[in-house]
Fold this sequence. Notes:
disordered C terminus; 26% strand; 6 helices; alpha+beta; binds zinc ion; single chain; disordered N terminus
Amino acid sequence: MAESDPNPRDVGVIFNPTRHEHELCLSKNLKKYTCSGCKEFGAEIGYKCSSSSCQDFTLHKDCATLPDVYEHSDGSFKFRSKTHLRHHCDACRDVLNGFAYETESNRLRLHPLCMVLPETLDFSGHAHKLKVVTSDLNGKEYTCSSCDSPIDSGCWRYQCEEVACKVYLDLSCAKVDIFGLKNSDIQRVAPVGMRLKFKSKIPSVGTVMNSVGTVMTSVGTATSVIGLSLG
Ligand SMILES: [Zn+2]
Ligand SMILES: [Zn+2]
Ligand SMILES: [Zn+2]
Ligand SMILES: [Zn+2]
Ligand SMILES: [Zn+2]
């Protein structure tokens, strides 16, 4: 799913006005941090603001450098520096609390890191590759093999290519492996409580696209949960 990126990604100092008002410096060996853009955890590598007026402003490398318009297999996504408090990511279903990407037409919204997930993943210690599943989500719930929390119906997930294995991974745990965070005492990039619960069964991403109005109004019951999580 990750597209080849026309923008240079490993430049030491960048200025990206849609992401931050100051220059950002590529920094390595960083301890666990919360990305000032998407608010998910990061570690090891990131772009830090060097201005004395900004304390601890750090962005994931992807949050700092992904282009403002990103061509994804699910459509053309535009960068947004903020979304509405009620909004959630259509891939991992965790709340969107800062940087996000959004499609014009069908209002699909994703975390920056959820947008660039690889199609396959070498999950630490497992013999086979895991592949990302973004459709055919058919109302079944799975349990994440890493953190043991439920993967709600409608969430994208990784699962072992060998069906008999029954190894599943939620995106929050998968991102720890994908973005090299596992040596930094990070189990998930966001707490389990950040995820929205849906009453309705959502059979596939295609249905989410077509029925966003319904899905968004059904979020009402979850609003208080979000309030607590963000408090
Ligand atoms: Zn980020
Ligand atoms: Zn700054
Ligand atoms: Zn997400
Ligand atoms: Zn397997
Ligand atoms: Zn997990």
